[in-house]
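Late entry, cobalt (II) ion complex.
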Amino acid sequence: MTRLALTDTTLRDAHQSLLATRMRLEDMLPIAEKLDAVGFHSLEVWGGATFDACLRFLNEDPWERLRALRQAMPRARLQMLLRGQNLVGYRHYPDDVVREFVRRSADNGIGVFRIFDALNDPRNLEVSMAAAAAAGAHVQATVCYTTSPLHDVDHFVDLARQFAAMGAHSIAIKDMAGLITPYIAHELVSRLKAELGLPVQFHSHDTTGLASMAYLKAAEAGADVVDTAISSLSGSTSQPPAESIVAALQGTPRDAGLDLELLAEIADYFRKVRQKYAAFDVGHQLDGRMLIYQLPGGMLSNFRSQLAEQKALDRLPEVLEEVPRVRADLGYPPLVTPSSQLVGAQAVLNVLAGERYKLVSQETRAYLKGLYGKPPGPVDPEVRRKVIGDEAPVTVRPADLLEPGLPEARRQAAPHLEQEEDVLSVAMFPQVALKFLEERTAARTRVDQTLAAEVAGVYPA
Ligand code: CO
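Prediction complete; structure with ligand written out below:
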């Protein structure tokens, strides 16, 4: 066996999980040279919620961020998390938008596309996988790990086999809720390595405290790469710490061979950066109840704030019991963006309305119409009838029903267009991106006026 490779998630998943995705580019660039020098397999720096957060909260252009990181880390392979047909948003986008987004992401510096679908419906990965391959990038197809009566190791191996047939260059096991036990990790990785012959990358969250143990067993089973975060932004709902995994394997056949001194310097840096974002910090919390309720880390805090708004925090235990029932009704979708939000919101509605599915979200209705894709298992027929009546759910790939999206996005972006990528930002987030672009134009005008005044001052009439 060869050394275990590490992907660093500090600039994407770690701050998404711990700091509400608020880390700014200005806090990434000063440490980029050192991150580049570590020798990570890849650096996950883009995608997931970071794109939306840049536009919505940080007044930062996500494309500029990507280019700046590419330039600051010339050696590293930059990786992004892509939600299949949902790209970096929350709904299905038309194929023209998907193809163009993937192509531009690769052009701007992404070398590894980790692609998943919340329902593990392979049809929702087809177009983005083909686009990433066409761009010459590494195509990593993702198995979203979850637990249910139908999600066993055979189920995940079958899914990965479909991804292999679709041309995946590697397989990621994405355990967003930190639920995989060390021994299931060992079995799943062993089976994938033996039956597929593709590299396997393992991604978990330390929400339940299981992740480091799962990584160790995954490494023993032959996983090629594991995802870690620098220690000062690791643990809890983030990834396990890079330093601990490196130390655990030193002197073994899977020795990762990374420099603990250099990692310590990087950890020092992010320890200080983290303090700047204290207002968003979820802190260190290991919640044993997550092993019972099997929810991703973000869901519990979402429930708390949703119920507090409704002055119904005392209903939390009922909501936590309702989640698995809703999941069963919906055919056991994995809980990850956007299905986690959908299931969570419906569970809250079911409890607060006093009658199940009396109030139904738009998302639940769309889901039951088949507009998210094919659920892993059968949907409860009674629930479906109650929500969408006798309407037959669609069985085609959902994006087949969508008209091309680029022409309209281009029309909307036109007054503010500075780069082709602006069209994609608008195609995915019409309101948020247009507001961002308008403000950018306004700021440029202000700068021009200041400059004109200065120049006029130099040459008095
Ligand atoms: Co993650």
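The chain has a mean pLDDT of 95. Will revisit in the morning.
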